Amino acid sequence: MMMKLTIFVVLLFILPLASVAQLKVGFYAPNCPRAEAIVRQVVQKHFNADKTITGGLLRLHFHDCFVDGCDASILIDSKKGNQSEKDAGANGTVRGFEIIDEAKKLLEKACPNTVSCADIITLATRDSVDMAGGPKYAVPTGRRDGLVSNPNNVNLPGPDSTVAQAFQIFRSNGMSLNEMVTLLGAHTVGVAHCGFFINRLGGSDKTMDATLSSNLGKLCGTPSKPKNNNGKTFLDQNTSLVFDNQFYKQILKRQGVLFIDQQLALDSSSRGFVSGFAANAPSFQQSFVNAIIKMGKTGVKVGKAGEIRRNCRAFN
């Protein structure tokens, strides 16, 4: 009995690693050699028209991977009487779906039933980071698309999370505290609606720089007198459209827009990572590459698992 239990435990650790091992850089080279070029072409077109798509795609990728793994489950549209992840409250402002749709349409013409929607998300995110001045990096591909999209499975850190609360979710997905601080640094190209931070304005949160609070109050109002709940602002108030380490420098000055962002610089467990990234841009960029590639391997489906969707918004 003990031997059977030992074998079972060992398999629990080996099988996920075996799945990750099937991902590889250049996975589509033999059967769809232009796959990555096609995705990049679509992303470049949308980036030229709207440079905020980098933040949108990063969020799309993160929200997909942290719910049942990186399997494009967030792309599924709800049907009457059957809601999908997309309708979960945490995904209400996620965007970039049309970019994935456009790339998929072109890929289906070039290489039918070959490139997964999950890989398109991963590649599009990588390309948009590069276009925004961030690091260039290769990503392993070979993911397959999932067969489940359930809003009840969505459990993501919210804008009002503490560092401990956010880390509980990151840790459950195999990420370290350093990697969490790194990935939240993607907010350097992010935007947020007033509803995500208005509760901090009007003097309600003394950890926010007074000038920033005043400026945001002109856009959003205050908790007692909201003005524009759909208004948006950049999370990096300095180099808003550039993927750099300015986000960390700003939260050290109490200029974090979201509560969770500001807490990264105030909590003793994460402040050291923030200070390190603020002082060393190359360190942040390398840490980001390592962290986002690792995140992109979360719960992947490979081999014969899942499917290759023909339409990213619907199961085959």
Automatic annotation (TrEMBL):
CDD domains: secretory_peroxidase. It catalyses: 2 a phenolic donor + H2O2 = 2 a phenolic radical donor + 2 H2O. Its EC number is 1.11.1.7. Residues 22-316 form the Plant heme peroxidase family profile domain. Its main location: secreted. Keywords: Calcium, Disulfide bond, Heme, Hydrogen peroxide, Iron, Metal-binding, Oxidoreductase, Peroxidase, Secreted, Signal. InterPro entries: Haem_peroxidase, Haem_peroxidase_sf, Peroxidase_pln, Peroxidases_AS, Peroxidases_heam-ligand_BS, Secretory_peroxidase. Residues 1-21 form the signal peptide. It comes from the Eukaryota. It is found in: Secreted. Its cofactor is Ca(2+); heme b. The keyword Methyltransferase does not apply. Binds 2 calcium ions per subunit. The keyword Metal-binding applies. It is an enzyme of class 1 (oxidoreductase). It holds the Pfam family peroxidase. Removal of H(2)O(2), oxidation of toxic reductants, biosynthesis and degradation of lignin, suberization, auxin catabolism, response to environmental stresses such as wounding, pathogen attack and oxidative stress. These functions might be dependent on each isozyme/isoform in each plant tissue. Belongs to the peroxidase family. Ascorbate peroxidase subfamily. This is Peroxidase.
